[in-house]
Amino acid sequence: MFNLSIHDKLGLIIQDNIYMCNVKCLEEGYFILNTPFKEKESIILSKGKIIETLNYDANGNLYKFSLEVLDKKMNYEKKIVCVCKYCNDSLKVEKIDNITARFFELIKYSKGFIKEEIFKRAKKSNGILININETGIRFKTRETLNLGDELTFEIKNDEDYLITKGAVRRVENTNNKEFLYGVNFYNNDKKEKEKIIKMLVTIIKKQRKLL
User: Fold this and answer.
1) Using CB atoms within 10 A as the burial measure, which of 41, 63, 88, 166 is most buried?
2) Is the pTM of this model over 0.70?
């Protein structure tokens, strides 16, 4: 079990999107969050809503738990905040020991190696990026994939955007009906490698701002 702290960043999973928010206040039995946002889009949470939530601790461990929205109110800055409580014990999902996407980036993928112009129109599945380096990524999804499966990915991080290909090289169960996959990139050219490195630098800068 981890303990939340004031200013912790949480990732709220809502309709296959991840909205970020900060812990503003901690009291016995409840905590207060600011309005969750994704890029420039914010969302107002309904009273009684139960939401799957992600959080990293100071050691890089990823935890998952559910929260319930107890109430909404206006704070002293005249901004809407949400009063929430835990719905269940937290589950430790994954220890992160590489460069990590602390912002729980949502990725989209399709099976097979697909040309970029076709991939943009193709049906895609959603996953949550766990980490990324020059040779591959690790991501979570509920979909069952097999070793050797070829995938085409769309990865976004702020202004960084990348469509790349890779093959599944590792499969792990996470004990919560999800799978953790390790994927090696396939024959990245110099231009793609430069995009990946740029994305890594952006992620590292984000993390340093949180320290």
Assistant:
1) 166
2) no
